[in-house]
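> tool_call: predict_assembly(chains=two)
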Amino acid sequence: MEVNDLITEIAESGREAIDEDIQRIREHVADVGYEPGGMTKAGGIIAGLWWRGRRIRSNERIENADAHFLRHVVARHEWPIGTTFAQYISSLRPAVEDPEGGIVVDRIHGQWRLSFMARAYGATGPLSGGWILVGYPVKYGYWSTSFQPKNGLRHFTLNEAEGERWIRYPSDPIL
Amino acid sequence: MDPIPLRSDSIDMDLRHISLALTDLRDIASDWEEEHIATKSSWDYEWRDYMHQFESLYETYRAGGMNEGQQTRFLALQRDLEDSALLVESLGLQRPPVLSRT
């Protein structure tokens, strides 16, 4: 079974994910990263920042990975001050692969999504919530988001209507 | 456990960022159905985080931890969020918290 089919089967059946499932899912999602060429609107929070030799405008579309780096590292200081784009991206794959980390499944606009939550360890900036979140909409097949939510694990409200539940709870869930 | 007091520069940043995010959300709302699932997913995560930040700002406001200018901007933001609650909800995002009248 393909990994995305496996995720969908776990999400729809409500069954527990076994260790082998979790391992396959982590390896697959860690590999995909952000969609090359995937674009999003820059938005006001990073408007005016200099990036790749030019000034960002609110209404322009920029690469997803760039947008998240500028928003969460440069503007919001969730990673240590001075973290580079390469360091930010390098901190994300271990968060997905971390066997101590947790995984939430939920449904957004009718599509299943996984959220990987792992301790930020040495990657905590002044406004870190202590945990790195990497989002993976299953049908899309790439990461959609990576940031450090203010409330850490309490970011998730476990909305039953959207099927939101932990399929793997963190091993050391200090909130 | 009592919430950790927010630093003044953090209050300024959160007030500014939540306000900018709300402006962006209003801009994007008319084209929301055409937006990519990656963008909608990102908004879902980040908007929830902004609302958690807003709740922390509220606690700071109630505890008297804001200067006069911050209080004014907080109350304006609170009004803006309340005015936009239906729009936010229609996009499938977390409705801004209803706070007791301040």
